[in-house]
Write a structure and sequence with these properties.
The structure is a single chain. By secondary structure, the chain is an alpha+beta fold. It has two domains: about 45-195, no CATH class; about 205-390, D-amino Acid Aminotransferase, Chain A, domain 1. Helix content is about 30%, strand content about 15%. It is built from eleven helices and eleven strands. The protein has helices at about 60-70, 75, 85-90, 140-165, 225-235, 240, 265-270, 275-280, 290-310, 360-375, 385-390; strands at about 45, 55, 95-100, 190-195, 205-215, 245-255, 260, 315-320, 320-325, 340-345, 350. The strands form three sheets. Strands 7-6-5-9-10 form a five-stranded antiparallel beta sheet. A four-stranded antiparallel beta sheet has the order 1-2-4-3, covered by helices on one side. A hairpin with a 7-residue loop joins strand 1 (about 45) and strand 2. The protein starts with about 45 loop residues before the first strand and ends in an 8-residue tail after the last helix. Mean pLDDT is about 80; it is low at about 1-30, about 105-120, about 120-130 and about 175-185. The protein binds MYO-inositol-(1,3,4,5,6)-pentakisphosphate and adenosine-5'-diphosphate. The site of MYO-inositol-(1,3,4,5,6)-pentakisphosphate has 13 residues, from helix 5.
Amino acid sequence: MPLKETDVPVVPVVPVVPVVPVASVTPVTPVAQVLQVAGHGAIRAEPADNGTTLLKPYSVGEFAFYRCLFKGSEETQGAHIPPHIQELQSFVPSFFGLREEVEASVFQANTPLCAEHLQEPELESQSPTHAPKRPKVGDSALVERSDEIQWMRRFERIRRQLQELASAEQVDFGEDDSKHKTSEQARPSSRLYLCMENLMLPFERPCALDIKLGTQQYEPTSSVAKSSKHLQKAMRTTSASLGFRLSGMAGYDTHLQRSFVRRKNAHRSLEQSEIVAELLLFFHDGTQVRVNVLAAVVDAVSRIYDRFVRDQALLLIYSGSLLIAFDGEEASKHDTAPSVTVRLIDFVHSLPSFGQRDQSLMFGMEGLLKALRDALVQADDHHEYIARTMHENDAEV
Ligand SMILES: O=P(O)(O)O[C@@H]1[C@@H](OP(=O)(O)O)[C@H](OP(=O)(O)O)[C@H](O)[C@H](OP(=O)(O)O)[C@H]1OP(=O)(O)O
Ligand SMILES: Nc1ncnc2c1ncn2[C@@H]1O[C@H](COP(=O)(O)OP(=O)(O)O)[C@@H](O)[C@H]1O
């Protein structure tokens, strides 16, 4: 059942900032670092604000998603954000807007991208056939449904507009597709970044685990080549069997005072039977499993499942991840309540669902919750696995 508005945690809604070329800005030193345990884009921290902001290469899908999720002027426009989307706001990083970086040598004051290219059309401007009538006050279920439909239509429209804008080649968005580039010519003279909350900021010694959720990692409209590649990858990993796969992590051994890492390629080869042991490895501090951290993570994942994933039929999240983080330095304070961060991230391939439940995501979150709960029960086991694997990739740290 959807929660009342008063139950929804208040999160800062940050309006999308205008695109600001930063060609002439001298980088501030030292450059703030981020911890990136997975992904294929070059994520980095904004040096000018001590790493509060994380810069992720632009993609149409993810910008459209965040733009529809956090919109400061929503209430004033009279459009309501559906309860499940309000819930989702507190389960993702805060979003601060776009940043454009232009190579100094090619920067022109008259940069082709400006905020007005990305304006959302007013709902009122829709044709009557597309604008659902708002139900009469009193029928709360219908009102909610109508808000959901409007929200999904807005999301679809913004995605389409951004795609058209990109393909019209008015603007070189500089999507991070460097691995797909074929020629020097394709290199953009400017790059766009999404600015979002750096979730690692609160931690002195961040430990992070990226878990790719869902059985399906490709959008339904993907090419046959792309979908069959992802299908095969799902079959070769635990994505198909458990609904999720571990996709890179960094932990911390307080005993040896050094980090340990596992790259996503290594995680891909894990067997189903090794998942619980690998989860315990992540929560291990070199001496013991930090059970209180694991328990806090189980609570946080259940909350995301109960309040968003289980009942929502607004979004299909393909290839999204759950990012779990905690502080490796807190290990000595075993009896204090640990601070953990658990967020859904990576919405590059998220689509409006128009009433279809995200079975792939639900199955994945259920499988992950079961594995985490099994890990809690088996916290004193798997010593041999942990001792053998903890530092096997130390050369990569
Ligand atoms: O190339 P790969 O095998 O690393 O696959 C990429 C994925 O890596 P992963 O499944 O995590 O190992 C990758 O996932 P991550 O970014 O690592 O989460 C994407 O799904 C990527 O597709 P796209 O460029 O976003 O359309 C995927 O790229 P495509 O090969 O589908 O273009
Ligand atoms: N908001 C964030 N705060 C801190 N780290 C993040 C954040 N978003 C992503 N990361 C780091 O970057 C990695 C890749 O992020 P992701 O959004 O999945 O990128 P990609 O689209 O390239 O797969 C994550 O595994 C995590 O380590």
